[in-house]
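Hey, I'm writing a tutorial for new members on how sequence and structure tokens pair up, and I'd like a real worked example in the thread rather than a made-up one. If someone can provide the structure for the chain below, I'll link this post from the tutorial.
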Amino acid sequence: MILLATYITLTRGTRLLLLNEYTYSKSGPIRAGGFRYSCSSVHKGCKAHVHVSRDDLILLAATEHNHEPTTYITLTRGTKLLLLNEYTYFKSGYVRAGGSRYSCSSVHKGCKAHLHISKEDVITLAVTEHCHPPSKYIRTKSGLYMKV
């Protein structure tokens, strides 16, 4: 089976490979012509990596991770949210060390849950105590999500 690489672009323009809900950063060229992508959590000791040809074909995928994936969803109106443990978070700012702060989508209800995500798309801080149940979303035929 031939797999084509899928990419996402973060708000600051960083392009990441997306495979099985995990993200990978470009880490260098490979001899066969193409690039090696290392798991975005390589700094936490994850050794997962993918080799991609110049034509965006996945040549090799070592996908054993030592962590859970960071997942993003796009709503039908175009809003991008981070999804973690059934709760959604929106990008609410930046953190001094570099990266972004995501606040719970129910912050208007007084929820103080938030995450810090590094430039490499790794969760570096997680305050996940919520004062409400998670919202429910369904995936539409177009691949976008809608709140139920």
